[in-house]
Task: inverse folding
């Protein structure tokens, strides 16, 4: 129903759509009283043996205006709860991706109805850009957008897309079949430069078959976290058990033979990092969590599945993980995979600490350990929802590995009041959002978003710090205001980084287009730039790390560096040979590190 729906613009539509700037933004509200940033709401209505039915209700859209060759376009790529359509050159309309639980042994038929439409004229929708990996000597590898426009699509007299819902594909999450239904609440009529917005869409997926088979095994541990994200699936989470009897630990020496139990927790360890301390950690995990733990040395995996290959490949590891999975049954599958070892370039295949990951792209590659557990998916599918929960200790020596074990056991140890000083900031998250690439962003658009991080820390009962620096200039209150939406200066940024790391946090997020050598703010990366531009005063770099003085005996923060160049952390062989690029940032020739010449990275110094 839509009798309560109305369209509200938070400021005049001309101001949203027709300002002659590189980017302006506004919130288009389609639900009375829906606050800015509201995501589409999906309601599951009914599931039976013949169909599943659900509604998608649009609350609003984030509408940004961009200019290309003096032509203004409206763009929805930052609209909450949607993803942009990625057909290069075609109108980049927003998509609500819906994951739907469906039975096996059936074909799927999609029907839909749409209500409550509003049409707006004189608006040209931005074409989906070409995303391309840029690798040159002036910057770290990064993805850049390139303008592309399909002439036929932008002269068409038909609404695009023609259908406002379609089955985009399917996959399996553990033993559950999942259909992906894309819903398009916005259509574009290129011949008239008009958009039509549907704020109420009903979708029905029919099951065509006489004997649908529903998953009865649940999703295992995923029942704890899936919530309402899987339409039509009712999770039945068991309470996290306490005081379970200790599980078993087994060394899988002959990896071609089925182990004596289906493990809950699988450890695959590089041969140069194996030892009794791995067995000790497995025993600790078995005792604390009641897990049955299996340990496999990479040499044993190679013996069983290597064939004629001269070195371990990701496919060999996946052959083994799939065997472990298939030895289980629905409802009794492995849940966790821990990889111990650092992945490297193929040229470093002889390193005893090497445990490869799946990489895609050339020459730099994107790493994805979760590919090793994308069971029931073709191997050319690189990314998806993993069937197991995967982690990695990227250690290169046994001392570092044992430090990691000790730190985890310390974090998981029970704390009773009065709490020691070094636990004061254990329940604290820090979010650091750096600079936009061109210093012209209109807001803090970095992921994880402010809202997501705030909801996470609220759910966990944590305190938090949130810093967004923008371009490093304190011009926010000028008229006109600074377009980056931040009053934080570069000096403030460095001071904030010093504060949060000297005080300690349990988790720290850093998001930026930056570099693995610095947490940058106010640094314009567009060449040509003057020597030492923005550095070191506007960066928190490896030299700052070495000068940190902890406040008290706090534990080390766990830092998630969510920037393009932190990537795979495999910058090994003379990565920084050209010292004329950004001279003075943090080059240090005093330490001869065998796998990273000239300059330390933050990870090494942390």
Result:
């Amino acid at each position: 129903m839509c009798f309560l729906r109305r369209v509200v613009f938070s400021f005049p539509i001309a101001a949203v759509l027709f300002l002659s700037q590189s980017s302006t933004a506004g919130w288009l509200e389609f639900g009375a009283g829906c606050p800015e940033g509201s995501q589409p709401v999906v309601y599951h209505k009914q599931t039976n043996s013949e169909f599943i039915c659900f509604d998608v209700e649009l609350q609003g859209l984030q509408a940004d205006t961009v200019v290309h060759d003096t032509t203004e376009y409206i763009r929805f790529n930052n609209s909450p709860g949607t993803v942009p359509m990625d057909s290069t050159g075609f109108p980049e309309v927003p998509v609500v991706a819906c994951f739907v639980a469906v039975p096996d042994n059936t074909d799927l038929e999609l029907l839909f109805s749409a209500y409550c439409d509003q049409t707006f004229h004189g608006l040209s929708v931005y074409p989906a850009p070409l995303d391309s990996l840029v690798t040159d000597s002036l910057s770290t590898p990064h993805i850049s957008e390139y303008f592309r426009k399909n002439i036929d699509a932008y002269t068409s007299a038909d609404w695009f897309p023609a259908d406002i819902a379609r089955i985009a594909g399917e996959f399996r999450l553990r033993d559950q079949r999942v259909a992906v239904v894309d819903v398009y609440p916005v259509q574009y009529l290129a011949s008239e430069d008009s958009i039509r917005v549907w704020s109420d869409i009903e979708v029905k997926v029919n099951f065509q078959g006489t004997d649908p088979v529903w998953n009865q095994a649940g999703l295992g541990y995923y029942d704890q976290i899936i919530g309402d994200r899987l339409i039509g699936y009712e999770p039945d989470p068991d309470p996290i058990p306490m005081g379970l009897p200790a599980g078993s630990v087994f060394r899988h020496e002959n990896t071609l033979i089925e182990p004596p139990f289906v493990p809950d927790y699988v450890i695959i360890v590089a041969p140069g990092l194996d030892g009794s301390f791995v067995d000790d950690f497995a025993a600790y995990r078995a005792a604390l969590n009641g897990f049955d733990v299996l340990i496999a040395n990479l040499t044993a995996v190679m013996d069983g599945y290597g064939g004629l290959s001269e070195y371990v490949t990701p496919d060999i590891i996946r052959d083994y993980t799939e065997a472990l999975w298939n030895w289980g049954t629905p409802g009794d599958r492995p849940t966790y995979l821990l990889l111990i070892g650092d992945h490297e370039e193929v040229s470093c295949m002889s390193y005893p600490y090497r445990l490869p990951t799946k990489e895609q792209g050339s020459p730099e590659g994107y790493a994805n350990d979760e590919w090793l557990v994308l069971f029931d998916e073709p191997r050319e599918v690189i990314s998806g929802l993993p069937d197991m929960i995967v982690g990695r200790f990227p250690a290169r020596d046994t001392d570092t590995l044992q430090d990691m074990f000790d730190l985890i056991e310390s974090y998981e140890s029970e704390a009773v009041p009065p709490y020691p000083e070094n636990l004061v900031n254990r329940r604290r998250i820090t979010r650091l959002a750096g600079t936009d690439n061109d210093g012209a962003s209109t807001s803090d658009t970095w992921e994880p978003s402010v809202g997501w991080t705030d909801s996470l820390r609220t759910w966990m009962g944590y305190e938090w710090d949130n810093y967004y620096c923008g371009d490093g200039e304190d011009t926010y209150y000028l008229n006109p205001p600074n377009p980056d939406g931040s009053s934080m200066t570069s000096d403030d940024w460095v001071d904030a980084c010093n504060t949060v790391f000297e005080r300690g946090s349990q988790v720290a997020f850093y998001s930026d287009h930056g570099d693995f050598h610095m947490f940058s703010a106010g640094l314009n990366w567009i060449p040509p730039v003057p020597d030492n531009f923005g550095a070191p005063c506007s960066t928190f770099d490896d030299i700052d790390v070495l000068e940190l003085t902890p406040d008290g005996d706090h534990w080390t923060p766990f830092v998630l560096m969510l920037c393009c160049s932190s990537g795979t952390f495999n910058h090994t062989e003379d990565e920084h040979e050209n010292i004329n690029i950004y001279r003075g940032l943090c080059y240090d020739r005093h330490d001869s590190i065998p796998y990273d010449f000239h300059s330390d990275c933050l990870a090494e110094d942390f």
Observations:
- Residues 213 and 288 are 37 Å apart (CA to CA).
- The domain at 26-226 is CATH 2.60.40.3800 (Immunoglobulin-like).
